[in-house]
Every structure is written in structure tokens, then in C-alpha cells.
């Protein structure tokens, strides 16, 4: 089984501060030997293709209705917007769903990811209440699974050049022998999202390159290295899914408590 090359790992051990994307939200990647940037589809886009989104769409419709009930100004905008102005109506619908709370869990998840990243960089960091308990629970769940954090390897881009797909994994974990790419889910249910999570994990596990976008807009300063992080397909993916299901199950309990407060 291949393992991480320490020298290559250190040379790419730089956090990605801002992701360069094209107008469709795809990662802008400069493939080896190419002279122009290519848009790589997001791993999450592929992972969600098989999801049943009917429940999500119904939930978002409810959030939009609740938002309109709280925002008479948006109701007025709907009444005065031409029916064929799809862009304007879409914008109003988005604002209404946000007013109804559609982005609360997503934003909270982003915040918790940021808090965890700061905690890993600085062990003395304390998250604001009540979120310190969330951070402690994530760390405890990973520790109970017999895994450890790989220092500096959080929020890193990986790419698969064969299918032109890229994604950003949250953490790199190790049990001392094997290495696992990890993606924490703070706003989704394991019950409904397990298939998508497994697909996303498989894409990360079989990525060709660890990729760091440089400051040059044309990608000329980007760094990449062909590091085979995980090679044993079935065995490794099974372990990845098993370990992450344990972590996500612990975090899901916390999410339910947070939902009661929002």
C-alpha cells in the first residue's frame, strides 16, 4: 500500500486560503503539461447526482414560505416584478428562503469547520459557547475511532485528472499505518445522505494530485504532486465509510440539539 511521501507532503503543506473558480463554480486547475486553466467539476456535484432531493426541495419551499411571512417587503417585490423576469424572481426567492432559515445549518456548519481548523492549528483555542462542546465531540469521536490528525492537512484540494473532478477534503487522518481523507458533515443526516457521502469519499480517496492554487490567476504558480494517498479500493473505502459513519453519527446528535435552538 502506498503511503504519503513526507518530503512531498511538506512541500505542499500550505493551507488553501481562497479557492479559484470559474463562473460555474468549478475549480480552476492547470493540468500537467497544459497552458490553459480547465474547469474541474466539484466532487460534491458528482456525489449529489444520485440523491433524492424531493424532501430537500419541499423543505426549502417551506423555508421560502416562512421567509415571505416575515418579510412583507419581499412580498411587495414579488407583486411588482414581471412574471417573465426569472432572474429577479429567483433572487427574491433566495432571499426569502434565507429569511426563513434555509441557510442557518449551512452557515453554522461552515463556522464549526472554521472553529475546528483553528483548534487544530492552536490547541489553546476555545470556541465561543455553545460550540466548544461540538469541537470537543468531533475530536473525541475521531480519537475513539483510533485516528489522529495529520498536522497541517486540513481544507486541502485534491484533483482527479482522468475525469476532471476536484474537491476539498476537511481533514487527513491516520491510524499510524493507513491514511484517510475525511469530510465532516455537520448539517446532513447519515440516513439520507450516506450514498452521496460514500461517493464523495471515494472521489477524494482516488484523487491523483494534492493541488495548491498559487497567487497567479493563470495558474502558473500552482503546485501539484502525484501522491497516491490510498490505493486499496474496497478495503480502504470500507474503512473510510465505517470510521466516518461513527464520527458523523456523533455529530448528528449535536446537530439535532442545535436545530432545537434555531
What does this structure look like?
The protein is of the alpha+beta class and 262 residues long. Helices cover 48% and strands 16% of the residues. It has helices spanning 6-11, 43-47, 54-70, 72-80, 86-99, 104-121, 132-144, 190-205, 233-261, and strands spanning 27-29, 38-42, 148-160, 165-174, 179-182, 209-212, 223-226. Strands 1, 2, 3, 4, 5, 6 and 7 form a seven-stranded mixed sheet that branches. A hairpin with a 4-residue loop joins strand 4 (165-174) and strand 5 (179-182). Helix 7 runs antiparallel to helix 9. The model is unreliable at 1-15 and 229-242 (pLDDT under 50).
> Could you state the order of secondary-structure elements as H and E?
HEEHHHHHHEEEHEEH
Number of domains: 1
Radius of gyration: 20 Å
Shape: globular
Overall residue-averaged pLDDT value: 80
Instruction: Kindly state the percentage of residues in helix.
Output: 40-55%
Amino acid at each position: 500500500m502506498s503511503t504519503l511521501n513526507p518530503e512531498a507532503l511538506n512541500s505542499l503543506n500550505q493551507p488553501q486560503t481562497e479557492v479559484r473558480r470559474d463562473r460555474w463554480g468549478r475549480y480552476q486547475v492547470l493540468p500537467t503539461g497544459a497552458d490553459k486553466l480547465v474547469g474541474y467539476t466539484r466532487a460534491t456535484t458528482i456525489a449529489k447526482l444520485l440523491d433524492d432531493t424531493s424532501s430537500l426541495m419541499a423543505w426549502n419551499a417551506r423555508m421560502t414560505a416562512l421567509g415571505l411571512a416575515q418579510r412583507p417587503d419581499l412580498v411587495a417585490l414579488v407583486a411588482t416584478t414581471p412574471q417573465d423576469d426569472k432572474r429577479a424572481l429567483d433572487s427574491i426567492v433566495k432571499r426569502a428562503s434565507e429569511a426563513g432559515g434555509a441557510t442557518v445549518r449551512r452557515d453554522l456548519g461552515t463556522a464549526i469547520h472554521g472553529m475546528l481548523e483553528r483548534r487544530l492549528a492552536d490547541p489553546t483555542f476555545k470556541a465561543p459557547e455553545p460550540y466548544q462542546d461540538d469541537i470537543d465531540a468531533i475530536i473525541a469521536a475521531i480519537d475513539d475511532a483510533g485516528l489522529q490528525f495529520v498536522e497541517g492537512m486540513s481544507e486541502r484540494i485534491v484533483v482527479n485528472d482522468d475525469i476532471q473532478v476536484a474537491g476539498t477534503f476537511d481533514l487527513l487522518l491516520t491510524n499510524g499505518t493507513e491514511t484517510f481523507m475525511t469530510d465532516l458533515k455537520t448539517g446532513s443526516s447519515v440516513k439520507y445522505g450516506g450514498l452521496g457521502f460514500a461517493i464523495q469519499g471515494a472521489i477524494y480517496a482516488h484523487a491523483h494530485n494534492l493541488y495548491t492554487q498559487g497567487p497567479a490567476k493563470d495558474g502558473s504558480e500552482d503546485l501539484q504532486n502525484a501522491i497516491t494517498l490510498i490505493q486499496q479500493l474496497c478495503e480502504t473505502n470500507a474503512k473510510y465509510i465505517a470510521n466516518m459513519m461513527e464520527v458523523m453519527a456523533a455529530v448528528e446528535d449535536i446537530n439535532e440539539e442545535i436545530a432545537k435552538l434555531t
